[in-house]
Amino acid sequence: MPIESLYDLNFKALQARLEVDGVRPVHAVQLWKILYHELEMDPAARSDLSPPLERWLRRVLEGSLTLARPSVSDRLDSSDGLTKKLLLRLYDGQEIETVVMGYPGRFTACISSQAGCAMGCVFCATGQMGFVRHLSHGEIVTQVIEAQRLLRAEGHKLRNLVLMGMGEPLHNYEAVMSALASVCRLPGIGIAPSRISVSTVGVVPGIIRFTEERLPYSLAISLHAATDAERSALLPVNQRWPLRELMEACRYYSLQLQRKVFFGWTLIAGKNDSPEHVRVLVELLRGLDAHVNLIRLNHTAGFAGRTSEEASANAFHKAVQDAGIPCTIRQFRGIDVAAGCGQLRATRQKSSEAGSARLKTLSAS
Ligand code: SAH
Ligand code: SF4
Fold first, then answer.
1. Residue 26 to residue 54: CA distance in whole angstroms
2. What is the pLDDT of residues 305-343, one digit of tens each?
3. CATH, domain range 201-333
4. What pTM was estimated for this model as a whole?
């Protein structure tokens, strides 16, 4: 393990750390504001630090803490300039993705919660990669800092946050929830909790814990199929927590917190996009305060399925709405920047593998 980063301390941990070192915890407020509101990368160089904070910072940065943060190793902008994808390199060489999407008047960051993912969904580039490790508080929070820095440089401000990048957020519950509390904290990054959406493949104990802790974020469930046989074929996690348990957890969440549940449905031609699929879905959601978000499949190297035809996608959309369930089709965002989760990293790895294969061929000849 490397030396701990200052970004790995949430506000309470920062206060506790100051106190242990004999500094009044009230100084945490100034440091927090400098790091998370002003987005200062070199706080020790500031001339406006209170003297005890300045002395403490100098001392800890010489030994027990660093200012280590992921570095931006690649950036791709979509041709319309509205989607920007960052590839961030972590201290151990792992790479994760953060995407910034612009809609008229509002900006959304899509961040990662893990390097790789253990859930193995067959159509997902991150699932195809397997699990590498959980991200820390600092590795999650600094993705939001990078997004905010990028937007600030263009005169904009981050408004929404979605955990729909690489990884399963409820499999890394502690670090994710601690990081989300940090990005909401004021004065700091200050994103409104109601503008944060946590997307899960259906880790049932995590949904129950989220409900019981009455967390203020929206919850999105990646459903994709409405029978156990079809869902298990796409999402192996369904064998562990089948639909009956998942829907029971969703109803519990919705009733306890009086909230709508957002269901994600990636449309795959011939697999889950027929009128019969709509019928079974509508039956499954009966009586639940639900909203369905449709997205057409992004092609990935490890999955042979095709994206739905536009006509089938539109018919599916209309049929769900006609059944009285609110439903939207998410636009393909920045398809030219490998917009799907894990796809930029996968594309880059493929091209570097192709590069090294070429080198091998050259040296063999
Ligand atoms: N692990 C969480 C959050 C990250 S994935 C989850 O699964 O919900 C975010 C969303 O992208 C999920 O709904 C996922 O099913 C979807 N997704 C993954 N790969 C995709 C692809 N190739 N095309 C379209 N959607 C995809
Ligand atoms: Fe993991 Fe979500 Fe991808 Fe499934 S879709 S493998 S849960 S990141």
1. 14
2. 999 999 999 999 999 999 999 999 986 554 445 555 566
3. 3.20.20.70
4. 0.93
